[in-house]
Every structure is written in C-alpha cells, then in structure tokens.
C-alpha cells in the first residue's frame, strides 16, 4: 500500500499555465486522508511560493522546498540545512565573473537579487519569488541561504551546467529542472535526501512511497521510492531512472496515476 506520494510541481503536478485540476485533486486528497497517506510537495521553489497552491490544506501536507534544503510538515519546519557564509561568498565570487545568467540567492525569509537587475527580469521571477528583497551587495543578506538559483537562456542550460560542475562542485552541486533554470544546492541536500528524512519521520519505508518528476533535480527522489513516475514530457534521462511513465503534465498525468493508486 502506498502511504506517501511526493510530487514535483513545475512540469509535473502543474500544467504549462501553472494550474492543476483542484476539484479532481480534492477527491484524491480526501481519499488519501481516509487512508492516512501523506501528500508531499517536493520542489526547487521556495516554501512561501508553494503554499499558495494549497492554501485550504497547507497545514495538512508536507512541503520539501529549495530542492530539499527545507522541510515543513503541517505548517511547522522540521528540517533545514543552509550554506556556510564563507561558501556562499566563494560561489558568488565565481558567479560575479560570468554574464550568462542572473543570480537569485534564496533564504528562509525570501529571495534576494541585486538592485541593478532590470525590472523586466524581476517580472519574470515574481511568480517564483513572491517575497523578494533588493540589495546593493549580497553581503547585506542577513538570512540562512538554502540555495542559489540561476536563470539562463534555456538553450544554454546544459552547457552552463557542465561548466559549473567543473568550477564549484567542491562547494555546491549544480542541478537543473530544465526550463532555463539551474539551482546550486548543498552537497547531498537534494530531494532524495529530504524524502528519506520525511519517510523516517513518518516511519514509512521507501517501498511505501511513490514519486512523480520531470527534471534532473528529481532523479534521486525517483530512484529512492518504490513506485516512481517520470512524466511523458520528461527528458529520456529522467524516464530511464523512473519505473513508470505518467501522462504529460498538461493531461493531469499525476492525478491520473494517483487515482489508480487510491481508488
């Protein structure tokens, strides 16, 4: 029996318009509640952004945010891991020499960007960073840094990912969900590690867990659980890790498979 379901958001649970079938999900979630199964949102996005999608039930579910750096269960933080300040400074120093991407420093309190960043870029990230602070220098940040997000041209993502792996992988691990996004995360602080923590917290086994994903930052999570689904719209590398393939995110693929699991 499946006792926990973890879902990525962008490209997985959400369609391309950033929506999901709320009525259909409500029926599945009600069934999960009756079976005492846990629903877990596992995303690279920040907690303050994720809860907006689940306002009525946000204190009944668990959120893995910032690609595994923070876990919030039923409205209460139960785990977090942040970068050492010196490591943040070293990474930002390397990034300052590059012009291929924009940098967003993500902390517990919100996201931080330089005040020199153009307004048109800010508009593109407002959806993902509802709590945003402008700083003239990153040294002004007084927060626990959970990850550093980079926005780059989508067609350049793989090249920049490989480049960063060689330069800063001794401090941070570059991962990508695709879509022109690269996250610099703490070593071993990925979604798979967070799922393992959550399973232990609830006293569930990995065989009792299912997970859905579509990006490179979902690989460890998909590899860990007993029942894993890559979305039909996922790259082949993700499909090779997952045990099953779900319909696309635009076809409510997650809900299609969850209905099979719980009805």
UniProtKB/TrEMBL annotation:
Pfam families from the xrefs? Hydrolase_3
What molecular function terms (GO) are annotated for this protein? magnesium ion binding; phosphatase activity
Please give an example of a GO cellular component term from this record. Answer: cytosol
- Please give the superkingdom of this protein's source: Bacteria
Its protein name is Sugar phosphatase
Q: List the source organism.
A: Listeria kieliensis
Ranked from the top, the taxonomy reads: Bacteria, Bacillati, Bacillota, Bacilli, Bacillales
